[in-house]
Design brief:
elongated, alpha+beta, 3-stranded mixed beta sheet, two-stranded antiparallel ribbon, single chain, 38% helix, 228 residues, Histidine-containing Protein, Chain: A, 7 strands
């Protein structure tokens, strides 16, 4: 399997000039641990994560050192910490060392990146532009999808499965009654697995109907969690 087979396509992002307070609300409201930072041309220039927001003056968690230790701490380190705790714009606190991957990156390499860099999600880029994101939970979803009895021993990620997934995500994006494309869809051997929270019973039924109506779909595995 590759990143393209499991990545979430509709990614929530922020801009470098956005207020930190707005980024914090997006993290909390969407229950995500990090947001890619994109410029006006949709190029990824950074990431703002929970780790960048741990030491904030608003909640009294700025880093504190004994005077003698602060005296020998490099000025660049002190300046960086001050920006993290007092910055008001995303560009002032974001991490610019972006660990990313391409759509063709195997999931094994994605897992290695997550582990090696101790991060929870990896932006997926195409020519420097954001096209999706793969998180730890997406890898678990892929594993769970591969363990169903009907898929035992079957490798997920055939061209047919990718075409079905592309069509399902495209149809989801065309509908105003749902933002389910921000969750995840995995297709294995023609079976569409729908993962994520659903806001109403009607949306739940409509999502199942939408997936069932895509040509080539064998069945739909309902992995959705009702939030109603």
């Amino acid at each position: 399997m590759k990143a393209i087979d499991v990545m979430v396509r509709d990614v929530i992002t922020v801009g470098p000039d956005d207020d930190v307070a707005d980024a914090v609300r997006l993290l909390a409201d969407n229950d995500v641990s990090a947001l890619p930072v994109v410029d006006e041309d949709e190029n990824v220039i950074g990431v703002i994560s929970e780790a960048d927001l741990l030491h904030r003056e608003e909640i009294g968690t700025e880093k504190q050192r004994p005077w003698w230790l602060e005296a020998v701490t490099p000025a660049s380190t002190l300046a960086g910490e001050f920006a993290k705790s007092h910055g008001r714009r995303v560009s002032e606190i974001m991490s610019t060392n972006v660990i990313s991957a391409s759509e063709a990156t195997p999931l094994g390499e994605i897992a290695a990146l997550l582990e090696r860099h101790r991060i929870k999600r990896v932006p997926i880029l195409r020519s420097g532009k954001l096209v999706g994101i793969v998180s730890r939970s997406n890898l678990i979803q892929a594993l769970a999808s591969s363990q169903t009895p009907s898929n035992a021993g079957i490798a997920i990620g055939s061209d047919t499965d990718r075409q079905i997934r592309h069509e399902v995500l495209g149809r989801l994006g065309d509908e105003d009654w749902t933002n389910f494309g921000e969750r995840n869809v995995i297709v294995s051997d023609g079976i569409v697995h729908l993962w994520g929270l659903v806001g109403s019973a009607d949306e739940h039924k409509a999502l199942l109907a939408l997936a069932e109506g895509v040509p080539g779909v064998v069945s739909v595995s309902d992995e959705m969690i009702p939030a109603y």
